[in-house]
Here is the input.
Amino acid sequence: MMNLASVAAHYLYKNFRTIASLAIIAILSWVWDYRLGLLLTLGIPVYLLILNLSKFLLNKGKAMSEPTEEEVASRMVEFAKCQGALRACHASNNYEALSSSLVQADVIGRKSLAWQSLGNLIGGIAKQMLVTISIILIVALAINRSLNAISAIACIGMVLSFSKMLEDVSGNVMGTEERRQQMDRIDSLMDTQELKEVDVSQDFQEIGSIELEDVKFSYDKENVVLNDISFSVKPGEMCALVGPSGSGKTTIEHLIARFYDVDHGSIKVSGVDVRDLTTSELMGQLSMVFQDVYLFNESLLDNIRMGNPAASEAEIQRACDLAGVTEIADRLPDGWKTRVGEGGSSLSGGERQRVSIARALLKKSPIVLLDEATSALDAENEAHIVKSMEELRKNATLLVIAHKLETIQTADKIVVLSEDGRVEQYGMHDDLIKKEGAYKKFWNYRISASQWQLV
Ligand SMILES: Nc1ncnc2c1ncn2[C@@H]1O[C@H](COP(=O)(O)OP(=O)(O)OP(=O)(O)O)[C@@H](O)[C@H]1O
Ligand SMILES: [Mg+2]
Here is the structure.
């Protein structure tokens, strides 16, 4: 963005000024001497043509090196950030991905430099040629006595200052072109289609219900993630989503929160299609407790209060006690006022999730979308989450991506997804377990896994 700003601040303005001067000199030189006018007027398009060629070569070079430079930059950040993982596999001294990206950047960098140098060279030669030809012509006219000595000297002076201006134009154009790749990328970002939003929401029909009808969705238009998904959850029910990794469970919750629009079918929240709700109305219906909880770099208390800025101190205290955040605050150096770092980096994953549960408890929205932790939680964490879920269940509809056997067993409804993103089975635990099928297999596998022990 700084580079882009410099285009606007330095190059564009200067270029307009210089081009205006060039045009004025070219026009007025006709008054001075028509031959000089002709020379300068013809010189501009010829010069611009050559400049275009040199611009093309410069871009070609830049387009080559830009991706490799980017690769090196991201590998370096990765190398610094993932030291823990790299050390664990003894790769901290020789990180192959980084060293090969450096080699690649070196090879491509040389080629790119060659193209760019050629571009600059052609641009420079064009200018010098224009000056030389002009001076030869003026001298020839002077020798022929078509031009008197004073006029000839004045013409040469004019040509030199004209060429200086052309040089400025080409420098500015090159400077702009050097930033072309970045500008194109920012353009493509700015051109990203916005999610359409209605101005006024439709009235809710059945607060707390969720309904998916024939939902089809893919992230990249090639690999279909969800296929004909239909199920509904009534107000106050708890629905468990289960299925293999990658079957689309998180995607379903993201679609309900309208992070993306479905490709086909519809999703209704509280009886209204999510596309007919304003973002604030939709968010008013939902609380989200996902695994990748993002916290703002504010105090712990502010992060929780965000759930409901109007909540009283007593309500906040109760939500925090229930979700187990009070203990986190007691442990931190500045208690509730401790800043949690960018994204909540100074808290553990389990702690971040507890904060987001406290937010949900405080928000008291009619629907809660929850993604249960896959990793085994310690007993204390587990107890807080169970208690919080019981509390949430009293007043809200829960759609839980369930991993714990108790959650699945006590759910009012279970949606079993297949690997290809379809609803394979749908019903209650007691009914599903009696039938041969994916759920029974999944359940038996989980039961046997829960009996594994480290010896
Ligand atoms: N932002 C994304 N862009 C492209 N593909 C994605 C994106 N998020 C998920 N996917 C793909 O969509 C599919 C479903 O992913 P999803 O995260 O919904 O699975 P899941 O059932 O939640 O898995 P898990 O149990 O491992 O959390 C996967 O194949 C995944 O690779
Ligand atoms: Mg998931």
Remarks:
- The first helix runs from residue 2 to 32.
- Residues 219, 225, 243, 245-251 surround adenosine-5'-triphosphate (ligand 1) (CB under 6 Å).
